[in-house]
Amino acid sequence: MGNTGVPARKIAALSLAFLLASCVRLIPGGSVSGPVTPPVPAPTAESALALGVRQGPAIAALRLGQSDAVSALASFRESCPRVTVRADGSGLTRPEDWRQACVAAASWAPATAPQFFTTFFEAARVGDGSAFATGYYEPEIAGSRIRRPGYDVPIYGLPTDLVRANPGDAQPLENGRMPLGRYDRGGRFVPYFDRAEIEQGALMGRGLEIGWAADPVEVFFLQVQGSGRLRAPDGSVLRIGYAGQNGRPYTGIGGLMRERGLIGSGPGQYPGSMQGIIQYIRDHPAEGAALMRENRSWVFFRELTGDGPLGALNVPVRPLSSVAADPRFVPLGAPVWLDLDRREAGGLWIAQDTGGAIKGANRFDTFWGAGEQARLTAGGMSGRGSALIFLPKGKLKRLGAQ
After folding, report:
1. What is the mean pLDDT of the chain?
2. Domain extents for the chain?
3. Is the dihedral of CA 172, 175, 176, 181 positive or negative?
4. Is the domain defined by 9-160+202-402 classed in CATH 2.40.240.50?
5. How far apart are CA 273 and CA 263, in angstroms?
6. Per-residue CA distances from 276 to 16, 273, 279, 328, 345 (Å)
7. Distance from chain centroid for Cα 323
8. Separation between Cα atoms, residue 30 and residue 34, nearest integer Å
9. Is the C or the N end of the chain the one with fewer CB within 10 Å?
10. Contact indicator for 313, 352 with CB cutoff of 8 Å
11. Rounded Cα–Cα distance for residues 280 and 275 (Å)
12. SS (H, E, C) the chain
């Protein structure tokens, strides 16, 4: 994806909590206008192994649902080419640990899907197992591959002048990497154009447009989500996904609104949900436009092919089956069991994604697919309860878990 060093995938699982946070994807979840609980603070431990892992209950005792297990088995099978070769940042597994289950998954009959998980896995509890889950979806907005009347908001591909600074041209970031920006005509490294500058035409005329949308507000939230669909008047669909970001810090506009008393449960306030935030912007267009520009971050897209948006494992994420997690605490590709006070988000999921706001042990972001119902379900999801991670059998003994 050019020479920016930005991962060629969406910013996964940018949950509604992310949007509402004062400093930190929108990926909404739960009730249409229900309150969103702030995320659980990340623990100081840097991995599941450092935090501590305990033996969970027998998987058979969880009584996995048939349809739940069938969809989870399908997603687990799709993850196998990746989990059997990639390093596990949680410290819980090795690539070879997954091979027996993956070989069996290739031909396992869906009719006995629950037995697959009881046969090859054991449940583990990371830390105290207390879980917090939000939700995300793949938005679909009015758009077109070509510019036409009423479709004037550009969707930009990744610019070639968005680069990382050469050593010595800027201060390294806290993680040691050089910052993203551009070199001006004088050869100086400077920050890349921010949201306001891009909206005012900084990138126009460079042939970067991969599509055009009808509504700038929808484009803003499409960027927060990191992927989505553009549906043209003729019914054709262009799928787009995250290609890169301008290097500017993300500012959650929900957090700004909360600080300013614009959202809440009081008179004249808007609900603390994605729908409430959008309604405020619709009701106050000038103030809303200025508010969105306070988030100086801008996301660039690429056209996607295939039947689903790609997660962090570079395999499609599936509705009601894929969940985003912090890979320091959950092996990507692992089955995850959620027991939450939001029943619709409970059950068996497969960890296939990550996200900027999905940090810490037992912090999850559930994927609900595309369309209006997915948007409504994801638009206020905030579930608390407990989580179990399914590990290949025998690994807990190796880890010394009790």
Report:
1. 87
2. 9-160+202-402
3. negative
4. yes
5. 9
6. 12, 5, 5, 33, 22
7. 9
8. 7
9. C
10. yes
11. 9
12. CCCCCCCCCCCCCCCHHHHHCCCCCCCCECCCCCCCCCCCCCCCCCCHHHHCEEECCCHHHHCCCHHHHHHHHHHHHHHHHHHCCCCCCCCCCCHHHHHHHHHHHCCCCHHHHHHHHHHHEEEEEECCCEEEEEEEEECEEEEECCCECCECEEEECCCCCCEECCCCCCCCCCCCCCCEEEECCCCCEECCCCHHHHHCCCCCCCCCEEEEECCHHHHHHHHHHCEEEEECCCCCEEEEEEEEECCCCCCCHHHHHHHCCCECCCCCCECCCHHHHHHHHHHCHHHHHHHHHCCCCCEEEEECCCCCCECCCCCECCCCCEEEECCCCCCCCCEEEEEECCHHHCEEEEEEECCCCCCCCCEEEEEEEECHHHHHHHCCCCEEEEEEEEEECCHHHHHCCC
Residue 212 token pair: 């055009």
pLDDT tens digits for range 373-401:
888 888 778 899 999 999 999 999 998 87
User: What's the sign of the alpha-carbon dihedral 14, 15, 19, 23?
Assistant: negative
397 token code pair: 């003994």
**Hunting for tokens 């059998």 — which residue is that?**
393
Top-confidence range, 33-37, 238-242, 391-395 = 391-395
Average pLDDT over residues 350-373: 90
